[in-house]
Amino acid sequence: MLGPVILAASRSDRMRHLVSAAPVTKQVVDRFIAGEDVDDVVPVIRELTEQGLELTMDVVGEDITNPAQAAAARDSYLELIDRLKPLELGTRAEMSVKLSMFGQALDGGHELALANVRPVVEAAAEIGTTVTLDAEDHTTLDSMFAIHEELRKDFPQTGCVIQAYLFRTESDARRLAANGSRVRLVKGAYKEPGSVAYLGQHEIDRAYVRILRTLMEGEGYPMIGSHDPRLIAIGQELAHRAGRKLDEYEFQMLYGIRTEEHLRLAREGHRMRVYTAYGTDWYGYFMRRLAEKPANLRFFARSMLTKG
Q1: What is the pTM of this model?
Q2: To 10 degrees, the CA torsion angle through 205, 207, 212, 215?
Q3: Which listed residue (58, 74, 118, 134) is catalytic?
């Protein structure tokens, strides 16, 4: 039951200050955040791709309060793409974006987010890669899916994320699986009410399997976003039953979590993509990582007790 408490803390300015000021926080955050700027992260990109891994890059910081900040977020991604170009990695290094970071929650936010994200998608296509639109809380999803559909008119490789804990997601998955899009399936990491989401872990896991089966049997490209060994094994079995080759789906896991499993899957010939976040505004991202899995919280608490 700690997950909802941590998610509530992720929105607290007081908790942000306390956690950020803790002496050991940086040591723990470094487990999940690859660096503060693009200069820090380029060597990480090189190291991971040399190990046979693929990446999706996330510039953290979704607490946008004005259009200038949204434009700055856009420019941060454009800078990243410019630095990726000479590496010639193609789709081995793509981008993940949260539309809130591009101004989605501001006045006229839908149009603003679309206007800001389109140049990023265009620039990514120019270097042979693509962008995935991250899912956020349920109130933002209609806008996200509408922007996804609009972008795919010119850039059909644009991906999106769906969340197993939401009741609506089985319907969304059927629609997306039928039209050939790239879809990352995750359990979900936002605090949602019981009126729109499953709250029990067993129910969420069962929904995840049902939705993943729909994606595997569809015409799209499934991206399995999970660290759960049981769901990874089920994903492999569903892919086999659907007759999918190893390059017709992929696994995705977070930077700093189950690193040996990343390498194991890559050695076995699977496409294994590491969700790699960087930037200075890491608090919200970090707190959701703690909320997702008790082991992450235990890791942080142990570090606070032994290093403080």
Answers
A1: 0.87
A2: -160
A3: 134
Alpha helices in 134-200 (DSSP H): 141-152, 169-178
As given in the structure block, the two tokens for residue 264 are: 């194991």
* Residue 205 annotated to the active site: no
CA angle 153, 157, 158 (to 5 degrees): 75
**Residue 169 buriedness (CB in 10 A; 0-12 / 13-18 / 19+):** buried
Expressed in percent and rounded to 5, the helix, strand and coil fractions of the chain are 55, 15, 30
Helical (H) or strand (E) element with 136: none
Q: Tens-digit pLDDT profile for the chain (308 aa)?
A: 444 544 444 455 555 455 555 555 566 667 788 988 999 999 999 999 999 999 999 999 877 899 999 999 999 999 999 999 999 999 999 999 999 999 999 999 999 999 999 999 999 999 999 999 999 999 999 999 999 999 999 999 999 999 999 999 999 999 999 888 999 999 998 889 999 999 999 999 999 999 999 999 999 999 999 999 999 999 999 999 999 999 999 999 999 889 999 999 999 999 999 999 998 776 766 666 666 655 555 555 554 444 43
Q: Is 289 a catalytic residue?
A: no
Closest by CA to 117, choosing from 91, 143, 86, is 143
**Residues near 12 by beta carbon (within 8 Å), at least 6 away in sequence:** none
Q: Which two tokens stand for residue 22?
A: 């803790």
Q: Contact 186/231 with Cβ under 8 angstroms?
A: no
The C-alpha atoms of residue 29 and residue 299 are separated, in whole angstroms, by 11
Tokens 């296509």 identify what position? 125
Q: Which of 184, 213, 273, 288 is catalytic?
A: 184
